[in-house]
Each structure stands twice: as structure tokens, then as C-alpha cells.
């Protein structure tokens, strides 16, 4: 998912199915047709037509019924079930330098970034990579940099809004991102069009997605990129090197916790932390409150087991796997997304 922070994602809550003799009602979930005569998102997706409902009723095990399972999420789930928490949002301040903005785009893999003044609770808008590239090129050259001149407006939504309503609002406003605002006006999180559509058709993978079941990967022999939440014992077993003493084993569970202990604070991005074994921990991604990703460089002669398959226990099992949707439905939804973009 390339529109938002590459870190952890909020897991949707388990949803119960309504009795078969009841029909959930949601006006925003009806087919929408724009004033220009173009077919609305729901109509193009073909998920709310009478024909689809009739097919599901007449053939219990057919593809339309599987598709209908995902539709229930639109009517029963709210934004708070799927949004990215505030701590995981990748955003930039309004006074960021041009070169620093280029670096954030490159490291995060995002195409849209919220822009704030002072703190994220004072959002100003969003910056789109396309707008920046048209003005300054992908390398940030050419012309005087004025971030505010190329900002796009942000969409705001309460966490209680049904995701079907949010999808329709995004289509109307022609935007792919919204900030989730609490009752006091503070930012709770961020939700993207992709986050919402995935609740209907299942996971949408792109070139920026990282397998959530993999805690670390080998860049080259002896060098690893790892999530801060990597279980320390699993990582030690894979690299064949003990990183904590017995007295600290009860206190430290993750690789990020080890880096925090060694630094005595939350280390900054780019900081290099040495280890007594000769290993080095470079902070790849972090914010003022927590570490996100770490590059581990091992001493020579260690770390022979560096492939992803070498860590069978280092996996995350989703408690709410996405519904299995037939290829035809996925293709139709993808075409709808392409038209909206």
C-alpha cells in the first residue's frame, strides 16, 4: 500500500453476520451516479446490484455470495476498524527543506504525505509526489521551493463513520486520503482509499508493501534490515549470536528494545549504536517516541542464516484474514480504482 506509512496497520475487528432475513440499511452504500453521468463507484464494482443479490440467494456457494461477505464490511465496519494509528503516520512539517522532502518520499515509498504546522494536530494539507515532480523534478531540482503553493486539501472524518460512507465521500471529493479526527479536533489516525477497498476485495499488494509476516530480511551477508518489533530470541537463533546477557533476557523482548537499552533513550534516525559483540545497529526509521526499523551489521564470521525462510517462528498470523474474492471481482474493483485515480 503505497499511500501511507509503511509501518504497522490497525487490524479490523471481527464482524458478525446479520440474520439472513434482515437487510442492513445504509443509504450511502447504494449505487451512486455522478452528475456528469459517469457510473458511480458502487455500480462499476457491481456489488450492490439486484442481479448480484439474486445470484447470491439462488446459489449459496457461488462467487457473488463470497463477494457479498465483503460488502457486509462496508455496512457494518467503521473507519476506526481500519485506520492507521497516529503513531504510524508518515507526515512532514510545513517548513521542511526540499532535499529532506525528497528523502522522505524515497525512504517511505509514499506518493501522498500529510503536511502539518508544528504538530500533526495542526494539518495544513497533503503533498502529492506528482505535484512536486512536475514543479521540481523527481530529484528536487529547479526553481524556488514553496511547499504551501502545491498543497492539496485534506479530507477529515470521524472514527465512527461507516467505511461505505467514507468511500463515497472520497469518490465525491476525488481524493484518496483522509485524516481521522477525534471529538476534540486532534488527529487519531489516517485512512486511505486502498485501506477501505481492501475490506471488500481483500489485500491489494503493490511494490511498496512489505510482508507483515517477515520481521527481517538480509540486505547482504551479515547485514539485515529488521522491524523494531522483531522477537529478539528468534533473531539471535537465526544469526547465531547472543545479543543480551541472561540477566537482561527477562526485560528485553524485541530488537527495538535492545537498541533502546543500549542508547539509553529513543535513538534518532540515522544514529549508529555499537554493541559489545562488535555488531552495529543503525536506526533506519524512527520518530521521537519509538524505533521502527533497524539495520543490523554483524561482526565478520557471524550471521550465516540470513534468508527469510530461516526464521520459521518469526511470523504474524492475521486474526481477520481478508475474504477470498474471485478474480473477476478483483479485476472489476481494480479498474474502478484506476478510473478514480
Automatic annotation (TrEMBL):
<dbReference type="InterPro" id="IPR016169">
    <property type="entry name" value="FAD-bd_PCMH_sub2"/>
</dbReference>
<protein>
    <submittedName>
        <fullName>Hemolysin C</fullName>
    </submittedName>
</protein>
<dbReference type="InterPro" id="IPR005170">
    <property type="entry name" value="Transptr-assoc_dom"/>
</dbReference>
<dbReference type="InterPro" id="IPR044751">
    <property type="entry name" value="Ion_transp-like_CBS"/>
</dbReference>
<feature type="region of interest" description="Disordered">
    <location>
        <begin position="1"/>
        <end position="38"/>
    </location>
</feature>
<dbReference type="GO" id="GO:0005886">
    <property type="term" value="C:plasma membrane"/>
</dbReference>
<dbReference type="InterPro" id="IPR036318">
    <property type="entry name" value="FAD-bd_PCMH-like_sf"/>
</dbReference>
<dbReference type="Pfam" id="PF00571">
    <property type="entry name" value="CBS"/>
</dbReference>
<dbReference type="Pfam" id="PF03471">
    <property type="entry name" value="CorC_HlyC"/>
</dbReference>
<dbReference type="GO" id="GO:0050660">
    <property type="term" value="F:flavin adenine dinucleotide binding"/>
</dbReference>
<keyword id="KW-0677">Repeat</keyword>
<keyword id="KW-0129">CBS domain</keyword>
<feature type="domain" description="CBS">
    <location>
        <begin position="150"/>
        <end position="207"/>
    </location>
</feature>
<comment type="similarity">
    <text>Belongs to the UPF0053 family. Hemolysin C subfamily.</text>
</comment>
<feature type="compositionally biased region" description="Polar residues">
    <location>
        <begin position="305"/>
        <end position="318"/>
    </location>
</feature>
<dbReference type="InterPro" id="IPR046342">
    <property type="entry name" value="CBS_dom_sf"/>
</dbReference>
<feature type="region of interest" description="Disordered">
    <location>
        <begin position="301"/>
        <end position="341"/>
    </location>
</feature>
<dbReference type="InterPro" id="IPR000644">
    <property type="entry name" value="CBS_dom"/>
</dbReference>
Amino acid at each position: 500500500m503505497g499511500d501511507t506509512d509503511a509501518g504497522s496497520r490497525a487490524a479490523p475487528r471481527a464482524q458478525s453476520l446479520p440474520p439472513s432475513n434482515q437487510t442492513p440499511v445504509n443509504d450511502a452504500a447504494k449505487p451512486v451516479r455522478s452528475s456528469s453521468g459517469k457510473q458511480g463507484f458502487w455500480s462499476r464494482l457491481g456489488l450492490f446490484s439486484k442481479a448480484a443479490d439474486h445470484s447470491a440467494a439462488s446459489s449459496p456457494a457461488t462467487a457473488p455470495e463470497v463477494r457479498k461477505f465483503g460488502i457486509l464490511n462496508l455496512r457494518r465496519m467503521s473507519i476506526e476498524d481500519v485506520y492507521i494509528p497516529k503513531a504510524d503516520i508518515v507526515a512532514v512539517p510545513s517548513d521542511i527543506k526540499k532535499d529532506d522532502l525528497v528523502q522522505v518520499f524515497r525512504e517511505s515509498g509514499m506518493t501522498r504525505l500529510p503536511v502539518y504546522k508544528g504538530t500533526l494536530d495542526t494539518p495544513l494539507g497533503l503533498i502529492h509526489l506528482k505535484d512536486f515532480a512536475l514543479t521540481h523534478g523527481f530529484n528536487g531540482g529547479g526553481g524556488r521551493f514553496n511547499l504551501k503553493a502545491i498543497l492539496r486539501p485534506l479530507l477529515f472524518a470521524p472514527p465512527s463513520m461507516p467505511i461505505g460512507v467514507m468511500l463515497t465521500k472520497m469518490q465525491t471529493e476525488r481524493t484518496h486520503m483522509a485524516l481521522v479526527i477525534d471529538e476534540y479536533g486532534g488527529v487519531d489516525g489516517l485512512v486511505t482509499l486502498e485501506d477501505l477497498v481492501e475490506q471488500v476485495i481483500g489485500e491489494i499488494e503493490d511494490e511498496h508493501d512489505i510482508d507483515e509476516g517477515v520481521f527481517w530480511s538480509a540486505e547482504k551477508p551479515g547485514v539485515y534490515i529488521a522491524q523494531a518489533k522483531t522477537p529478539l530470541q528468534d533473531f539471535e537463533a537465526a544469526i547465531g549470536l547472543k545479543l543480551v546477557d541472561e540477566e537482561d533476557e527477562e526485560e528485553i523482548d524485541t530488537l527495538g528494545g535492545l537498541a533502546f537499552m543500549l542508547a539509553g533513550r529513543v535513538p534518532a534516525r540515522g544514529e549508529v549504536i555499537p554493541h559489545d559483540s562488535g555488531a552495529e545497529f543503525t536506526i533506519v526509521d524512527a520518530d521521537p517516541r519509538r524505533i521502527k526499523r533497524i539495520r543490523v551489521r554483524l561482526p565478520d564470521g557471524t550471521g550465516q542464516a540470513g534468508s527469510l525462510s530461516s526464521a520459521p517462528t518469526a511470523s504474524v498470523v492475521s486474526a481477520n484474514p481478508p475474504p477470498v474474492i474471485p478474480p473477476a471481482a478483483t479485476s472489476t474493483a481494480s479498474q474502478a480504482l484506476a478510473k478514480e485515480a
